[in-house]
Automatic annotation (TrEMBL), chain A:
Protein's name according to its UniProt entry: RNA polymerase I-specific transcription initiation factor rrn6
Pfam families (alphabetical): Rrn6_beta-prop, Rrn6_HB, Rrn6_K-rich
Basic residues bias (residue ranges): 901-913
Organism: Zygosaccharomyces mellis
GO biological process, one term: nucleolar large rRNA transcription by RNA polymerase I
Gene Ontology CC terms, in alphabetical order: RNA polymerase I core factor complex
PANTHER family attached to this UniProt entry: RNA POLYMERASE I-SPECIFIC TRANSCRIPTION INITIATION FACTOR RRN6 (PTHR28221)
GO molecular function: RNA polymerase I general transcription initiation factor binding; RNA polymerase I transcription regulatory region sequence-specific DNA binding
Composition skew (Acidic residues), residue ranges: 95-108
TrEMBL record, chain B:
Family matches, as InterPro entries: RNA_pol_I-specific_init_factor, TIF_Rrn11
GO MF terms held by the record: RNA polymerase I core promoter sequence-specific DNA binding; RNA polymerase I general transcription initiation factor activity; TBP-class protein binding
Biased composition (Acidic residues): 412-432
Organism in which the protein naturally occurs: Zygosaccharomyces mellis
Protein name as it appears in the record: RNA polymerase I-specific transcription initiation factor rrn11
GO terms for biological process, alphabetical: nucleolar large rRNA transcription by RNA polymerase I
Region (Disordered) location: 38-58, 408-450
PANTHER family xref list: RNA POLYMERASE I-SPECIFIC TRANSCRIPTION INITIATION FACTOR RRN11
Amino acid sequence: MDDGLLPQHFPAGAQLAVGVRGSSMYVPNQEEAGKSGGWVRHFEDRAPFDLNELKTGKDATILDDPSNFTVDEDNDIVVGKDSTDGSQTLSVESSVDDELSNDENDENEQWKETIIKDLRWERLSPSIPSNFSVFQDVDLHKDPMFDIRYGSPISPQDYVPGTLINDITRNDYLGAVRKSKRETEKLLIFDPVVNDLFVTGNIQTAKDLRNNNDQQVVVAFCSGETNSILKLAVLPENKLHLTNRAQWLQEFFAKNVDDELGTFSSIDLKSSIKSIKIANVSSLLGRDSDTVGVLTENALYFVKIDNIDPQTSHISYSMHEPLKSTSFGDFPIADFAFNPWELQQFAVIDIKGNWGVARLPKIVKPGSRIRFIPNMKGSIFDPEELSNWKRIEWSSSYSKLLIINASKMVELDLEHDWQLEVVQAKTWSYLRDYRRIDDEFGVLLTSKEIIILSTKSENEQVSRVISWKHCLDSTDHTLRLSIQKLPLGFKMLILTCIFSKGHDKVYVHGFCHDQDRHLVQSVDGPLVFCIPHVFNGISSMHFLPYNGEEKWTVSETQGQKLWLDFLFKDTSTNRLMHCYLTNDEVSHVQDQSFAIPELMDSVSSPLPFTGRNNDQVKFFIAQVKLSLFEDEGESNDPDSEIFQKFGYQLSEAINGIVESCENQPVHIKQLQPLLSDLTTVPTKYESVEELESLLCQLSEYYRDLGVVFTDFRIISRLLVGEESVNLDFFVNKLLQCWDIVTSNSLLMTRKVFDTVLWSILKFHKSEKYDTIETELQESLTDPYSEIISHWDEDESQILEHQVSDERLMHETNRPQFLFGSQSQIPTIKSSQSRSTRRSRQPHSIQTESSFNMPFTPTEQDISSSRISASQGGLLPDTMAPAFSLMSSPTPMLSQSQNSQRPRRKKKRIRGFG
Amino acid sequence: MFELPLVIISKRTRTSNKLKYQYINNLNKKYDGINGISNGQTELPTPENSATETSENEEVVQQKRRKIKKRWKSVVGENYSDLESDDEQPVEEVDNEERKFYRKYEKPQLTFEKWQCDPKRRTPIQRHRINYSKMNRMQRYGYKRMETPLAVSSRSNKTFFHAVTQGYQLYDPTYGRVNTFQLKHIGILTSLLHINVLKRKWELAYKCFALLIRIPGVDVRTLWGLGERILAERQPRRSLEFLQWMSSVYSTKVPLADDVNYRMAPVFTKGSKTHTPKYTTTWLWECLIRYANGLEDLEVDSRDIEENFQSLMDRISEMVLGPPYMDDPEVWFIYALCHMVKADALSQQFDPHLTGSSRDIASNQVIQHIQNTKSHLQRCSSKGGFTYPKRYITRQLATFEARLHPTIDSYDTAEDDDDNNEDSLPDDENEMYPENLDTQLVDSEASLSD
């Protein structure tokens, strides 16, 4: 059937999502064959096995941990000896650590001075880089990357001796550094070129081919502190089927430290590795590749595996001359791909979109260089695309290439000299990753969907087959894809896993296709699992090749136990770890918590009911349920009686407290007692309005005595987002919320309301704050009290000043941005005064004026604006020249902002005419 | 981790986007300047180029026409529905540079990206590569133009700008997002909703869904798929009602304005004059499949399902009279499948022992449905952009028809026996298959739609 088995939109294919099952085809009854009719859908309910049964193994085993890299003593000495300029400073500093106590103190003082000065006056010269951070300890590990001088990235951190940091007191730097640190943390940026930092794949050497040996699984990963060492190892396949293979793997990798044993070959590339690939050869060739490609900061290396010793699994390899990025073009290489139909050919693309096809020399010998094929060069440069992320991959045939950047995918045919922009993703989504499945399918990950592409050679173009909307955060730029093929009876299951550098969850969705590859369907339901031992996120993830093909027969698919091993790398620690997915019973099943660490988020984790909270909620609900039963059969007194009693008790209690306050000193914590602490609060009343009027009367009565009650309206604004005029309104709001959740919402609401109300209502005597303040002031030590007293002086001066000049008061009251007519205030000045205001605000609480008055936002604003005004008042001379200098750009901006709208409108009107 | 079901715009993202797009536009301008491109004409006209160009020009003309039409409509006072004006509200706030960028690109409605499969659009491989000096010239120009806006922007925006222009990407998806408790709340609920759906805890998921769609600002159109799934598991009937509600409340016949910067992709969330919303097609498919499965089941009280099926067909027949369904091949295909299912069911229930007029009526019904299937399929393929297994369907239709014929032989021999029952049978037939009336109805529809 040339039309395909299922109806679908032509360029769009089937678009599925949770709850969207797409189009279907009706299969009528066939009485002759005894088959009843049904539907063939894009969404396969009767999957050979349930994806949701897959669980992760109980634990991840750490295979390789570059940060625990043991260094023997000899190496350290070596570093000291052949110290080039780069490493010299480091070794000197290590000696500094040792001798610090003696003669370095003077130098330290100097350091300290500069640092403190810089920290206080952040923006003044000399400028401190935005990512300034200090570390206390320097651990000198040998990493050969420091041996060379070119191309090695400079550590973004500045070295400051540890004792110095201890010296600088909290007040000196913590405030400043913390603040700047937070800012940089919020702007975490990554290099999109960095792709897979390890890879597993099948390798078949020339000798294997001659001797008709099977391919072997090789894992290639980067190691070392700067990711500059490539390690290669053979994973014996017979060991991978063991049940305790996790442990075996761990032991196996533990050996990797000594290279003497020979199972691990390590190659020092002297530059940090960005991507590792093993050629994925087309099944038509009936063999596997023997080359591993490694992309580093400045060159592309190819490691040809010559022989794998069958006994010791020792890998002997030879390396081609590295392809320097300078020999390709002006820009660093971003990605490369092997030609699946010709082992010697590969394609590269640089960060601006220039691409080329090159050929490896047949024989590895010094002097034989990698040559670019002259006619196969070009560019997909797009001035609008800023990201360095590029992908290049072979498409359906020998001469067709797919070139991808974040906003487009271009297919091109080298033989027939055409290119076509197959995908243009400029509007709703962006391309995030692409993986080639085999000669006929590829998976494209966009910020919105997972799309299975058909790259069949009989099709003219790459086309969409089926897509799944994954609903993951589309602003997450770190989403990457990993795929695994699983033969299931007559079907092939393609597992697509999405992982991110931002969290430890992996989103898995399955697709399957039948044997003739016409019918591609989506498997029921996505799956999210959580990988253990991941702190921040996953930087790369790969499944071990699944070679259990012969084990799968049709009959067995149902009850088949499945073990999918995968390796992954953690972003923060850069450890290589092993874990597995299985539908088998895991001995130690843990209920995975789906808490998302979200390091980016400054508010705590979004998991709603953790620990205590959960208990509290449970307790609360249990309580309410109890009271449900209690309430029955109890006759209530009329409201008026309850309230009368309550009011009487309350006022008596308050009187008592107010009186006692007069006489004896009170601790600052007891200044605002809760109403509910004073007497038993009524719970069985009916009218909320009555209660409100009671409270109103109370507060009015006591206002004359100088006792202030909490205003419920202000607090309700914090709770429900709007100011509720009265309590009744608030109750109704709550009722709406609870109505969704529970059937006896009325009771629940009442309970919640009571709890909320009585845990909020407080009262305080404002005079009390005065006495406490003087007490506090007296208790302060000399320097602090001096500051405070000076502070007050200043303010009183300003106050006088302000009373005389109302205009200034008016001006300082508004936020000091440059909108509107106030734009004469020079920008730099205003931002500075804002920052000083912010840093001083904590002190301002201790000033007299703010203690005298109740804490209302307006009061604080005024007081702080006074302070900022004081700043302005102190520097009247400096302001004038700054104003005249800076004024030229700012009005321009404000003008452009202000005048935009009217002008546009004008145009529109002209259009009608 | 999951996408929030609402449009989030904060001041910081807006300004940082403005910087970014301003820079991009500058780069683009300089690039065009360097290469001597003016107004998008890249190369000398070749037959291929001009072919693509003319079609592009047509698009532009159409867009203009649409714009003018819209203006006139607003002048006359025939304004769009409330929903549409809702959509356009955030648009007005968008900065100019960003809009300038987006205006250049067609906004696809069916997919998130614009997919191009037409071999006619092929161009020769672009051979000339970008080199450092050119790039540097462009970048210098770009930076120079950005000096003023950068001088007044905040520090984090500056850092963002420098990182992005160097080709790095932002790690943090929540950058610039306002950190309010409401957003936090929505974020938690969304995660819970997704996770509970994935774990198949429908009761919990239902609660999350119910809470979430009541929060102001949350758009149910971004969550309807989840809602449908949850309802389908809990109360299958309700899920169809929900979809019906979605498609009746959120249907629109207004074209998607191309010059507007929508924040939400219309793919799964909206419809327009040229785009059938996804919830409507899902609703039709779900109805069709569920009712058809009911038709199969002869034991179940078929009356109810028959009625439902008929009402579905009636509804589709009404829908295809107007846009956007009129031009949507998928709707026509569903319509054709309805008839096919019907033809299958009827041809199976066809009693070979019938004689006379009742027999004619019964066989006519089947043939009528087959005919309708064919004509609707033709409609479907004439709209283009939709593929279906043509040969398979024709083969199936032929077997339906064949079910009527082998009975002729048996009928000839059994004629005498059947004669006795002749009088009683037609009534049964009429009672059992009230669609006798339908055929006429279908007839008239067909003629109407033709």
